[in-house]
Write a structure and sequence with these properties.
The complex is a heterodimer of chains A (198) and B (285). Chain A contains six helices and eight strands; from the N terminus they run E-H-E-H-E-H-E-E-H-E-H-H-E-E. Chain A has a single domain, classed as Winged helix-like DNA-binding domain superfamily/Winged helix DNA-binding domain (Arc Repressor Mutant, subunit A, Orthogonal Bundle), CATH 1.10.10. In chain A, helix 1 packs parallel to helix 2 and helix 5 packs across helix 6. Helices cover 37% and strands 20% of the residues of chain A. Chain B is an alpha/beta fold and 285 residues long. In chain B, a hairpin with a 4-residue loop joins strand 8 and strand 9. In chain B, helix 5 packs antiparallel against helix 8. The chains are: A alpha/beta (198), B alpha/beta (285). At the A-B interface, helix 1, helix 2 and helix 3 of A face helix 4 and helix 5 of B.
Chain lengths: 198, 285
């Protein structure tokens, strides 16, 4: 079982601007996730009209750079980006050389940010649940290369990494599944820590 | 000592900031001959007044002779925001206050406590003024300036902000103007906090450096605020950014096709950083 959670960025303002506000928001987000595993997190920017790139970097860029989603078997996606905010997210993630799965208005998922892993993410979306060897075959790359790519995508929550049952020879084997496009209704959420501005 | 303001946009163009190194004195801001005033004049007057007040100088403010100019200063809250015990000389105009939130942001202290509220107000003002496609980009550019001021320009002397949109009747072309004047440590001292930039010795060098990507006084992976500001504004028209700090000044003009920057040495010294942003849409917009 996984738990859907949504962090609504609009609670930080329609024009979130400063790094200090972003730090408070990031702390609030991390507090919401504390002690949880197997969460499907949606960071929702709906109704945020324009955020600065400084805010995007301090809130989202730093969160993705410091939070290891794979150790919590967590997926992360960003939703509700307008054109301007999508640009802010892309710029800050490219600078931090990281990426995030973005749910587009048409319901498709795109990997945004540093572009090296785009093909890997698209292959993962097509494969459904898969193992590293499946990806290696699909992309015609070595299993080690596939593992390295999957590790990076799992760290930013673009796919969930779970220990596989019935691993051969008692060794460690993991299965992967890309983040899903579904977003829960607001009233279906079990947790949504309200943000209190300092 | 006196700060004599004459004619149109005096602090933005010709007036020199008085030197305070001569010891405790008094400051007279003489606006008697003032004409048209822009946001930089308003925020700059307040920054100077607070600097003097923090140095225990009594401040006197002489109101403009021209009633419309005096009324404008009143409307923009300049008189209200002057340091406590400022002596106002001249006839204080009555407060006639139409709700112009969609057109202007009155002179206001900019602090860590109110910056996010001011950013919301500025964002609403900008997006109401511009067409839908340009509004968010220009709002983002303006708010980068606010973040920059509170992150790097904090001091116990204060920073001030004011903004206005113009229809073009008084300014020749429709445009947005935003000014933020802080009394912080200035760009040179800020950059020199980072060991990588300790070789910088002049304000002019620091200004040039600060416009480049990834240049920061912090140890963090950042330093894109000013270029992001220019980048947001130039996508939808012409953005001009004038920055003054210490003895240096830089004027950057950028459109979607071109960008130019001119660095110069001023004959006065600006405490902290004064930033003046103007943005105009292309003529056909």
């Amino acid at each position: 079982m996984t738990e859907p959670l949504v962090f609504n960025v609009i609670q930080l303002g329609s024009f979130p601007t400063t790094r200090s506000l972003a730090r408070d928001g990031r702390n609030s987000l991390e507090e919401m996730l504390a002690g949880k595993t197997r969460v499907d997190l949606t960071i929702d920017f709906t109704n945020v009209k324009a955020m600065t790139i400084s805010f995007a970097d301090e809130f989202l860029g730093k969160f993705l750079s410091t939070f290891d989603a794979s150790s919590h078997e967590m997926t992360i996606k960003v939703a509700g980006l307008n054109t301007e905010n999508a640009e802010a997210v892309t710029i800050c993630l490219e600078r931090r050389e990281t990426q995030v799965a973005v749910l587009n208005e048409d319901g498709t998922l795109t990997l945004v940010g540093a572009s090296l892993l785009t093909d890997t993410f698209n292959a993962a979306l097509e494969l459904g649940e898969f193992k590293a060897n499946d990806l290696a075959k699909s992309l015609d790359i070595s299993p080690q290369n596939a593992n390295n790519r999957l590790k990076r995508l799992a760290a930013v929550g673009a796919l969930r990494k779970s220990r596989s049952t019935g691993a051969a020879h008692g060794g460690k084997e993991f299965s992967y599944r890309a983040v899903t496009a579904s977003v829960p209704e607001a009233d279906a959420l079990s947790t949504d820590v309200p943000f209190a501005r300092a | 000592m006196e700060l004599v303001l004459i004619g149109d946009t005096p602090l933005a163009s010709a007036a020199a900031i008085p030197t305070f190194e001569t010891g405790p004195d008094a400051l007279l801001i003489d606006a008697w001959h003032i004409g048209f005033v822009c946001p930089l004049d308003l925020a700059g007057m307040l920054a100077i007044a607070y600097w003097a007040s923090a140095a225990a100088m009594p401040v006197t403010f002489r109101l403009p002779r021209e009633p419309n100019a005096a009324s404008y200063l009143q409307r923009m809250d300049v008189l209200r925001q002057m340091p406590r015990r400022t002596r106002i000389v001249g006839r204080i105009p009555p407060e006639e206050r139409a709700n112009l939130r969609h057109r202007l942001l009155e002179a206001s202290p900019l602090t860590e406590a109110n910056v996010n509220d001011l950013a919301e107000r500025l964002g609403s003002l900008v997006t109401a003024y511009y067409p839908k496609s340009a509004g968010p980009a220009v709002a983002r550019a303006c708010n980068e300036l606010l973040d920059n001021a509170v992150e790097h320009g904090a001091s116990n002397v204060g920073a001030f902000i004011t903004a206005q949109t113009y229809t073009g009747t008084t300014t020749g072309s429709p445009r947005l103007e935003l000014a933020v004047c802080d009394n912080g440590i200035g760009i040179l001292s800020h950059l020199r906090q980072n060991p990588e930039h300790q070789h910088l010795t002049t304000d002019e060098q620091a200004l040039k450096k600060a416009m480049k990507d990834g240049i920061t006084g912090t140890s963090d992976k950042r330093g894109y605020g000013l270029s992001d500001l220019i980048g947001g504004g130039r996508k939808h028209g012409t953005i001009r950014l004038h920055l003054r700090t210490g003895a240096g000044e830089i004027s950057v003009t950028a459109t979607s096709r071109n960008q130019s920057a001119e660095v110069s040495t001023r004959r006065d010294i600006t405490r902290g950083v004064w930033a003046w942003l103007t943005h105009e849409l292309p003529a056909q917009a």
